Amino acid sequence: MRDQGQRGPASRGATEPGRQRLLIAPASGPRSYRIERLDAQLAIVGGGLAGTCAAITAARAGVRVILVQDRPVLGGNSSSEVRLWVLGATAHMGNNNRFAREGGVVDEILVENTYRNPDGNPLIFDTILLEKVVEEPNITLLLNTAMTDVQLDESAAGTRISGVTAFCSQNSTRYEIAAELFLDSSGDGALAFLSGAAFRMGAEAESEFAELFAPSEEFGDLLGQSMYFYTKDVGHPVRFVPPSYALPSLDEIPRARSFTTNLNGCRLWWIEWGGRLDTVHETETIKWKLWQVVYGVWDHLKNSGEFPDAENLTLEWVGTIPGKRESRRFEGLYMLRQDDVINQTQHDDAVAFGGWSIDLHPADGVFSEKPGSTHLHPRGVYQIPYRCLVSRDIDNLFFAGRIISASHVAFGSTRVMATSAHGAQAVALAAAICLRDGLRPADILRPGPMAELQTQLLRTGQHIPQHGLQDPDDLAATATVTASSELRLGAIPDSDAPVALNVDRGQLLPLPAGRVPQLGLRLDVAASTKLRAQLRRGIRGDDYTPDQLLAACELDLDPGDDQLIKIDFDAELDRPAYVVLSLLRNDDVGVHTSDLIVTGLIPLQHRTDQPERAEIGQPGLEFWTPVRRPDGRNLALVLDPPVVIGPAVSVINGVDRPTAASNAWIAAVDDQQPTLRLRWDEPQRIGRIELRCDTDFDHAMESVLYTQPEAAMPQCVRDLTITADGRVVIEIHDHHQSALTITPDDVLEVSELAITVNATNGNAPAALFAVRCYAAPDGRILTDAPTSSGHRHG
């Protein structure tokens, strides 16, 4: 079996032919471990999700990378060792952050995991992460290898890291690693700590950054660590004898009263403790306490007599390392704070985004009388500036993951894994630009390099809210774009599937500027009643907190099924925007829905609110959240006049997901051969074609535990044909990813490019977010290293 745990020099010499069968070594003086010297352009310490996504992103940009990971698997808290789901700005689809799943490599990983692993098996997720890394020839991966020392070069110009030393316990080898740039994504900041970079640990006082949510001493200054477990029904009674170290009683655990046997352990994230200890140096102490709690909890569930449904359950798995939330945070060129998150501060150097709530936990964890977590949600996603990812002290050091430059309060949001990975991808491309141009990480803040970085991020699928960018090298932007059809939304067909109006329900719709069309609904009415309907929007076109009331009406309804009710709100939009048609709860009414799935359309419901709490800086919000498929269906609507929601020209507007509009070409539902055409006045030389497909950026795609209703997203193009001046360039089948790169065998001389969508992955009309065309055959920033071979070739 080929060893895929190492790449490059670290894997040589294991099975050379003719090697002697017996080695006899006479006694000698003290020996030293075998030493291997490795060099790279970028050394990454820490192979959690952030470090993994950074390594892949950098490698694809042409950077030679060494990834040092002290565990046997990649993924950190998302790995099978800990088993926490990957999540970020989508926030389980439980707030108003629509179309908020992170882009780039982390999106590629989550989409692939959903496709292969819809049941959320953490072992399968391990294999996907490892596969993505070992497929990149520019990555040398060192598993089970802990960094132990740092070498610094100090001069009047500043301090630089010249190398690191790492040790692998599995092969008794010490690695001496040299690189030009370094990224610390190690969770505890091991590299930055040994380098002497400034850091913080604990919570800032409210007065330092005017953060009203800063915790009190009673609440505690650090978040703790969690231990997860799995259970399994084996079909016959199972006896459990607790180990002697199990917690003998749960009297000290206030939340013990809410234990159930149907959560499979890993949903019990609040089995947490350690926030009053040193969460770096006392991690082993914390682990032992959490083991005591877990086995005590299981003893209680099995042997207290209160849970007869636990009789056939066995304890299948218990984590061996805790999931760590917080330790050190390092000081960068800027420190993100509460105001940046809640007020969605705009930054010229924005390179990523977050959207998880500010989520703080009591330091005493499971032993606290306080709620397990307190969430403060912003009204939407917020920007993360590049300055938070660059050390202010070490000239060639980047930060990624939970150690980035943020206050304790802001960290409560930025710490989650998909957000961490999104920032890490930005670091990876910044490193590639630095290496190509001989820049320091801080130099990227100059206008030219920053504009290039943001453009390169756009090319890799990374979304930066409020940053509309046009790629200067994209030949498609100069084309005339037409299509065989464009969806004129005149009706969302009724599938004879009414849902009760037992909660406030809504439909999210992208509408152009101008008069709002008349809206028709099909209703079942049990008794004479009044239906209250509203038209709402947010404060911006891409703001999905619908607290701006545009119009409202009351409709008198008589009993009867399948009634067509027309609503004319007599309202106008001053700009394109997403609006919410809101139908307020009425237990006598059922509203008809549709099985048709359309890019950019989302059915909503309103169940909970966030009350305003001025004393902690918490805005009051109504949460209008999606209904997950298969239950989530669009409302059956009639729009008069019809509205074009997916014009063909959208594919060259530089935005690859819905914002204030769908930003997609969407074909008519009845178009049997939906085709998009790009025409140029003069022939173009095209070496690479990039397509961006709709993989439902509103879907959270939790990596483990959650099950997903579909393996491939129904909106995503599955089969397509590309022709150049009528000649077939390539036919694609069984596609399911957000990004599709086509590299023809020969550069195309073409005046017209046509893309015909032959099928999608489900009940959805053909749609594409973007078509980009480049003269260069690959998307690398550097030119001195091989690129990934994972592209489609014609």
What does this structure look like?
Keywords: 4Fe-4S, Iron, Iron-sulfur, Metal-binding, Oxidoreductase. InterPro entries: FAD/NAD-bd_sf (IPR036188), HdrA-like (IPR039650). This protein has ten helices and 45 strands. Helix 1 packs parallel to helix 9, helix 2 crosses helix 3 and helix 9 crosses helix 10.
List the helices and strands and how they pair.
Elements: E1 34-45, H1 49-60, E2 65-68, H2 105-116, H3 122-134, E3 139-142, E4 145-155, E5 158-168, E6 173-184, H4 190-195, E7 199-200, H5 206-209, E8 225-226, E9 229-233, E10 272-273, H6 283-303, E11 313-318, E12 323-324, E13 329-330, H7 338-342, E14 350-354, E15 358-360, E16 374-376, E17 382-385, E18 397-399, H8 408-414, H9 417-437, H10 447-459, E19 480-483, E20 488-491, E21 499-500, E22 504-511, E23 514-515, E24 518-525, E25 529-537, E26 548-557, E27 560-567, E28 572-573, E29 577-583, E30 589-591, E31 593-594, E32 602-610, E33 621-626, E34 634-635, E35 637-644, E36 665-666, E37 675-686, E38 688-692, E39 717-724, E40 727-732, E41 739-743, E42 748-760, E43 767-768, E44 770-774, E45 792-793
Parallel strand pairs: 1-2, 1-6, 2-3, 6-18, 41-45
Antiparallel strand pairs: 4-5, 5-6, 7-13, 8-10, 8-12, 9-11, 14-17, 15-16, 19-37, 20-35, 21-30, 22-29, 22-32, 23-28, 24-27, 24-30, 24-35, 25-26, 25-29, 31-34, 32-33, 36-43, 37-42, 38-41, 38-44, 39-40, 39-42
Provide the descriptors you would attach to this structure in a database record:
794 residues, alpha+beta, FAD/NAD(P)-binding domain, Jelly Rolls, 7-stranded mixed sheet, 6-stranded antiparallel sheet, 10 helices, 45 strands, metal ion binding
